[in-house]
Each structure stands twice: as structure tokens, then as C-alpha cells.
Amino acid sequence: MARKSRTINLPAPYLKRVWLEPERVEDRGAYPFCLPFLRDGIDLSFDRAITIIVGENGSGKSTLLEGIAALAGYDEAGGGKGYRPVDHSQALEKMGGVLAKALRASWLPKITNGWFFRAESFFTVARYLDEAAREPLSGPPPDFLSYSHGEGFLRFFQERCQRQGIFIFDEPESALSPSRQIEFLKLMRAMERSGICQVIMATHAPLLMAYPGAQLLELTAAGLAPILVRDTEHFQTLRAFWRDPDGFVAGVLNDCEGEAVSMDRVVTRQ
């Protein structure tokens, strides 16, 4: 008989620190260790229940979250402890497990309940839960797939946000409209107020970055550093758009046309 998870009478965060041990890295030139932010190692401390990581595409946010998820015992393709996507071939493309082998973690205490959410694999995992009914709830079956992507995602986590654990979200806004992002903020507040949920999230959405009191970190080639939401490139770009939507888009397209003309000249000369 499976042993039920024991509730720990300590508040989040439970994962206190993650760092890279150089001696565990076999090949510095191999991916993911060739990522710029890992060249000098990484040492990440969690001092709040909610940590939000921002950065450009390709900076390594998803790989870092995959590594943390693997440390927590989750499938790096998405899911929770003991759950695996139906199409597990997706996990073969992930490198979080490779990174996790070179990471060390400090827990107080170690808790491996929760979920790793990846928008790209959410429906696969939801189908698995619907079909296998591995975690039955009171009332009718969950049937997450009968909802739209965003609605299914919110309902999925509303069912779990009061449970103790570590919840890792990789760009949840990809499943959410702006109004649904507001609902997700409310979900985050419920998780924080429960006192038993730790959230680690990567996002490009300024609306989610602005969650009050969160530990907001920017991932660049130099590593992780605290940042204010107003100082992020994401916020500054959208602020320029909000000030003059038509002018902003026209300027971007004019720049694009200028680049195309320059490329045409290069091709003609060749």
C-alpha cells in the first residue's frame, strides 16, 4: 500500500538553496553546462515562498527549472512525483536530469510533493490523469480535457493549490489570456497564504512578474541577480507599446523593412 504523504508543520520555502558542484560536471563544453550562466557555476538561494525568474529566450530558464524539478523528484517533461506523461519521448529532449546530477540542494525539510507545469506537455499530463485517475477527487472525475487550455490549467491547479508541496511553473502565461493571468495571480495568492506551498516560476509576463513580495531574479549570461519589474526589458518594451501602440508597431515594421533592404543589397552585391 502506498504511504500517504505526511504534512510538515513548517512554512514554505522548503527548498532553501541550489548550487552547482564543479566536480560533478564531466564536460564543461557539453550542453547544458556550456550555457553562459553556468560557466562560473550557480548558487541560488530561496528566501521567500514565491520566486520568479525572468530572462530572454535561450538564457537557460527552462533548463534550470527542469534541473530543479528533477531534484524534487518530478519528471523533467512535466508532472509530479510518480506521474509520467503518456508520451514520455518528450523527456528525451530535456536536459534537466543531466543538470540535476551536477546540482546539490539544501532542504528544510525535503518535500517532493507538488507539480512541475510545462505548457507544452500540460494536455499530455492531463490526459494521463483523466484516464488513469491516479489521484481521485471527491465528486465526478476531473475531466480536465473538457476545458480550454487556460481553463483546464487553472482548474487543475485550483484542485491542488491547498496541498503542501513545491510547484514549478515554466512560462504558465503561454496557456493564459491576460484575464486568466489575473486569475492565476489570485491562485498564487491562495498558495502563498496557505503557508505550505513553494512556487518557483519562469515567465515573460510582466503581469505575473509584478506579484507583490516575490523574489524576482533576472537570468543573464552573468548569472542570476535581483531585479525590479520596472527594470526588466519585458516591462519596458510593453510600456513603450502601451504609450503609442500604432506608432510602436509602425516603428518596428519600418525597422524591419530597412533591414530587409540592407539584406537585399548584400545579396545583390554577392
TrEMBL record:
Residues 47-223 form the AAA+ ATPase domain. Its main location: membrane. One of its GO terms (biological process) is double-strand break repair. It is a peripheral membrane protein. GO terms for molecular function: ATP binding; ATP hydrolysis activity. It holds the Pfam family AAA_23. This is ATP-binding protein.
